[in-house]
Design a protein that fits this description.
The chain is α/β, with parallel strands linked by helices and 605 residues long. Helix content is 64%, strand content 9%. Strands 6-7-8-3-9-10 form a six-stranded mixed β-sheet, sandwiched between helices. It has a four-stranded antiparallel β-sheet with strand order 2-1-4-5, covered by helices on one side. It starts with 12 loop residues before the first helix and ends with a helix.
């Protein structure tokens, strides 16, 4: 049973507050001073509109009083003009400063959150990435996590500033027309509720699209990826893949259009209703001015302030719903960061030396989501320094078995011992330092040829060109590397460089990378699958020297490779059915002999 937990959509107030607190805590860790500065500037900007309205009222009333007195005294209005100038300048400068500091905070957050996601991703084991049930969790976590947190902070700060503006403007306007409170309550709360529900629906829709989004990414990679574009062209698959891509995108477009139309309709209704209500209030104030119940300054401030209030109110509602929506996306990041690997790791044993002895006792393993065991009741013993081969048809469990030996998985039953110690008792990092592994899907790193070899023991070799050249010489790839355009400095791969290798050459580099690792256990999964006969022979002539002192496990379908082993283990449908030397197994005339005979016939037909 997988220990990963996939989360459902959670929109309760407790979950939203939890995500909001988490985001604020991460922002504080990223740069608390910047966060405080941005918040302070936002609060200042929130108070400016009301202060400007009061200033405008004072300026109008002072001007009217001066005109009525018949004295052209600029001193009466000068303080209000100066205050208005200061407030206007404050609003402009705080806006500029807020944008600069907010960008710096976003940069710091992007650095921290992205690093946190990548760091946690490195702690998750192979099972997480190979289990299709958790690909959606991974996809949602990779969807610009830092941007969602930055957007949440921006929306929250904007919401706070606008709330302060609304409160201060409302406090001012209530003194002129108390009925404005009733207007706000009647229109604002329903509109805020609608916007929140709309944001929640948008998130739920996007959440449900994750698998389909991955499909669109897959179609794009098929149509543009160097590894697939040739076959796509030859098979004429482009129209089919494009049509499938277009179909999904059209579905997304139609769903988004429906939500946007609904949002526009409700927003337009809010604008019309609030504008009409505010103008009705404005007419009441104008009537009171005409009847002498209010001043001309009251009319001036009410007209300007209500317009500002309506715009600020709409911005506040959109910011509040936007901030709540971002907390839903933040929960995706939290869900990923809370994901735990299947492998239970502790501080564990750190061996000072290792011999490479492997022992399996009654090991069984079933892949998550599968009903059939990949391995059942496997028991075997590999002596230190011994070279063994695993043979069997496709799906027999060979690769699964060596992955268990490397503790990329833990068995469901039984145990795997390394030098007499259960793998689960080792420090995982220390154990992996004792193992060199050439995978079937070996890495083709976008790096120089020297780095591609040095990555096998990068801490010791990355800056030691001489040692890298020695490894390349021993592994038989030195001549190939030196023939490249810039030799060891040639950047391999088409993503950033201009030179690529053949599949066989890449595999030779991968084998050299494994031999660069000072490991007591060497696992080669189909090490000659992409090599021609000459390259295979060259590797074999060096193999004994390269593997000397190491326990070596070879997985291969090639009997020329298998015959090098001291012993051969034959797997069939997840069970160990035979073991022995090449000659012993042929003499037994069992499963191995049948495979060998078929292979020999196939070579000459």
């Amino acid at each position: 049973m997988s220990r990963f937990q996939t989360g459902s959509i959670r929109t309760s107030s407790q979950d939203l507050l939890s995500s909001a607190r988490w985001a604020l805590a991460r922002a504080w860790q990223a740069n608390g001073l910047l966060l405080t500065s941005v918040a302070a500037l936002s609060l200042i900007r929130g108070l400016v509109p009301a202060a400007m309205a009061v200033t405008a009222r004072g300026l109008v009333n002072a001007t009217v009083a001066t005109v009525r007195s018949g004295a052209a005294d600029i001193a009466a209005v000068l303080p209000w003009l100066l205050l208005g100038f200061i407030l206007t300048l404050t609003e402009a400068l705080t806006g500029l400063a807020s944008r600069v500091l907010s960008q710096r905070l976003r940069d710091d957050l992007n650095c921290q959150i992205t690093a946190d996601v990548l760091t946690h991703a490195a702690t998750l084991d192979v099972a997480f990435y190979e289990d299709p049930r958790f690909q959606d969790v991974l996809q949602r976590a990779k969807d610009n996590p830092a941007d969602h947190i930055s957007s949440f902070l921006t929306q929250t700060i904007s919401c706070t500033s606008n709330a302060l503006q609304v409160a201060s403007l409302l406090a001012l306007l209530v003194l002129i027309e108390p009925l404005i409170v009733l207007v706000l309550v009647l229109f604002t709360l329903p509109y805020l509720l609608f916007q929140w529900r709309l944001a929640a629906r948008q998130y739920a829709l996007e959440h449900s699209r994750t698998t389909k989004r991955r499909w669109t990414n897959y179609f794009v990679s098929c149509l543009t990826g160097a590894s697939s574009v040739g076959e796509v062209k030859l098979l004429g698959l482009a129209p089919l893949l494009i049509e499938r891509f277009r179909s999904l995108m059209a579905e997304f477009r139609d769903q988004d259009r429906k939500l946007s139309i609904e949002g526009f309709t409700r927003s337009a209704a809010f604008v019309v209703a609030t504008t009409a209500a505010f103008y009705a209030m404005f007419a009441r104030v104008a009537w009171r001015v005409l009847t002498g119940m209010s001043t001309l300054g009251d009319l001036a401030i009410f007209g300007g302030a209500t317009t500002r209030l309506r715009n600020t109110l709409e911005t506040f509602i959109l910011s509040a719903s936007g901030a709540m929506e971002q907390t839903l996306y933040i929960s995706n990041v939290i869900e990923f960061l809370n994901a735990q690997p299947r492998l239970k790791t502790t501080a564990g044993i750190v061996p000072s030396t290792s011999r490479g002895e492997i022992e399996l006792q009654n090991v069984s393993f079933t892949y998550p989501g599968s009903t059939e065991p990949a391995l059942a009741g496997i028991s075997l013993h590999i002596k230190p320094g011994e070279t063994v081969a695993l043979v069997g048809e496709n799906g027999a469990g060979k690769t699964t078995l060596v992955k268990l030996m490397a503790r990329l998985y833990d068995p469901d039953d039984g145990c795997v011992r390394f030098d007499g110690v259960d793998l689960r008792d080792f420090s995982l990092d220390a154990l992996h330092a004792c193992i060199a592994f050439v995978f079937q899907g070996f890495g083709r790193y976008e790096a120089t040829a020297a780095d591609n070899v040095a990555y096998g023991e990068w801490r010791g070799l990355l800056r030691e060109r001489g040692r890298v050249q020695q490894v390349a010489q021993l592994a038989g790839v030195a001549e190939m590397i030196e023939a490249l355009p810039q030799g060891y400095d040639t950047r391999l791969g088409r993503m950033f460089g201009e030179y690529d290798l053949s599949a066989g050459q890449w595999q030779q580099i991968a084998v050299a990378r494994a031999f660069a690792r000072q490991a007591s256990l060497l696992i080669l999964d189909e090490p000659t699958a992409n090599l021609d006969a000459r390259a295979e022979f060259a590797l074999f002539t060096r193999f004994r020297a390269l593997a000397e002192g190491r326990t070596t496990i070879i997985v291969s379908h090639r009997f020329s490779t298998v015959s090098m082993a001291n012993r051969i283990f034959v797997l069939d449908h997840g069970s160990l059915v035979e073991s022995g030397t090449h000659q012993e197994l042929l003499a037994r005339a069992g499963n191995y002999a049948d495979l060998y005979e078929f292979h020999q016939r196939a070579k000459f037909e």
